[in-house]
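Why should sequence recovery work at all? Because a backbone constrains its sequence more than one might expect. Tight turns favour small or flexible residues, buried strands favour hydrophobic ones, and helices have their own preferences. The token representation captures these environments compactly. In the example below, the structure is given first.
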């Protein structure tokens, strides 16, 4: 594959602005998420409370994200993104202020996480659909893959940096730096020169538009199975990230730095997987790659659960990261390629709901199960469930493997 195909989307000026702004902002976001989780565990020493925090982020997704997709199909997506990103910046500064003052409590974190989840419910569908405005149709798959690379590259550096800053300077600086990082993406959005677009004709109510989007997804014999794969992976696999702070301390005997290394190892694998998608984006076997990832991901989680040596744990986390991104981002790219333009915001809101909504629910269940049993047994149980679901999908929905 030619190098120019790997980075094809970067030839668009608007996408370059988006890429740079998101690169800086996502570093900060991962720093906050990593520090936030470890701070909760330090304050409570409870795996279940980690699940409560994850659950608080997911509740707004269930309440607002589908409506957020309707809004993304009806208003200028750049405006919607700037409002949502500004709100997230404000919440980061509030978290930093409470932590600097030494008054932060677990309920403060849950409340702020709920507010962040609300902003994300409107930001995520618009962000997914907005990429289509930045590149040509022929490069949309490459743009989705580069977005994934960007997200996961920040997942490598952000958590590791957060672990060091948390240990040396304290969690408040992680939150403060995240707040400052939003300036980059807001500046990038303001500098973009987007073509003038005609406002969509609103012949339906918001509720009717929402129902139309759901019917469109459920009635499509390719889009619906893809959504099911994403849902199952989020609920039983990706949700186990919630347990990483407890795993770092109770299973591996580490600290905030260990937690950051585990998160970064998963991110490293995800970067490798995302670059693989970018390189092979024009290949005719994306369905087979997605299927392979759906089977490999729970297997890596299973062997990770049996490991007690940090270097080997990091290796298995890298493998899980590669497999995970093959599932989530190939599903994203295929959906973006298959969906009709007029349904894009609504379909992507359903996609992001399965990710941001089901992952916290799975995190709540995983945290509660770990509280009753222990973290390793929880990962074993969830990985087995995820593997069985993937095998059933392979057997009963073979059309997924044939997607090109």
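From this structural description, the recovered sequence reads:
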């Amino acid at each position: 594959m030619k190098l120019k195909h790997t980075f094809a989307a970067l030839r668009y000026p608007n996408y370059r602005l988006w890429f740079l702004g998101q690169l800086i902002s996502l570093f900060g976001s991962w720093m906050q998420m990593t520090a936030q989780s470890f701070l909760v565990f330090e304050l409570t020493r409870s795996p279940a409370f980690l699940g409560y925090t994850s659950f608080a982020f997911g509740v707004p997704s269930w309440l607002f994200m589908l409506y957020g997709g309707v809004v993304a199909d009806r208003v200028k997506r750049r405006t919607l993104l700037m409002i949502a990103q500004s709100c997230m910046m404000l919440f980061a500064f509030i978290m930093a202020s409470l932590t600097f003052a030494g008054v932060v409590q677990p309920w403060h974190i849950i409340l702020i996480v709920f507010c962040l989840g609300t902003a994300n419910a409107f930001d995520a569908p618009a962000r997914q659909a907005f990429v289509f405005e930045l590149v040509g149709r022929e490069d949309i798959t490459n743009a989705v893959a580069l977005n994934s690379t960007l997200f996961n590259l920040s997942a490598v550096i952000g958590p590791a940096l957060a672990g060091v800053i948390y240990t040396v300077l304290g969690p408040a600086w992680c939150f403060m730096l995240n707040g400052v990082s939003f300036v980059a993406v807001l500046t990038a959005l303001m500098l973009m020169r987007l073509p003038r677009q005609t406002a969509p004709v609103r012949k339906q109510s918001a509720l009717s538009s929402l129902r139309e989007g759901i019917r469109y997804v459920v009635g499509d014999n390719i889009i619906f199975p893809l959504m099911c794969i994403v849902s199952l992976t989020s609920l039983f696999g990706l949700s186990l990230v919630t347990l990483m702070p407890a795993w770092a301390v109770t299973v591996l005997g580490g600290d905030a730095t260990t937690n950051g290394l585990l998160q970064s190892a998963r991110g490293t694998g995800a970067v490798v997987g995302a670059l693989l998608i970018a390189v092979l984006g024009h290949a005719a076997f994306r369905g087979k790659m997605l299927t392979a990832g759906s089977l490999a991901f729970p297997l890596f989680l299973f062997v990770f659960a049996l490991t007690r040596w940090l270097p080997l744990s990091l290796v298995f986390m890298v493998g899980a990261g590669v497999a995970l991104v093959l599932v989530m981002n190939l599903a994203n790219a295929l959906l973006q390629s298959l969906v009709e333009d007029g349904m894009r915001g609504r379909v992507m809101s359903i996609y992001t709901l399965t990710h941001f909504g089901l992952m916290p629910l799975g995190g709540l269940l995983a945290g509660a199960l770990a509280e009753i049993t222990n973290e390793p047994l929880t990962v074993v149980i969830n990985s087995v469930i995820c593997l069985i679901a993937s095998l059933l999908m392979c057997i009963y929905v073979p059309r997924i493997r044939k997607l090109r």
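A few observations help interpret the result. Residues 3-191+207-402 form a domain with the Growth Hormone; Chain: A; fold (CATH 1.20.1250.20).
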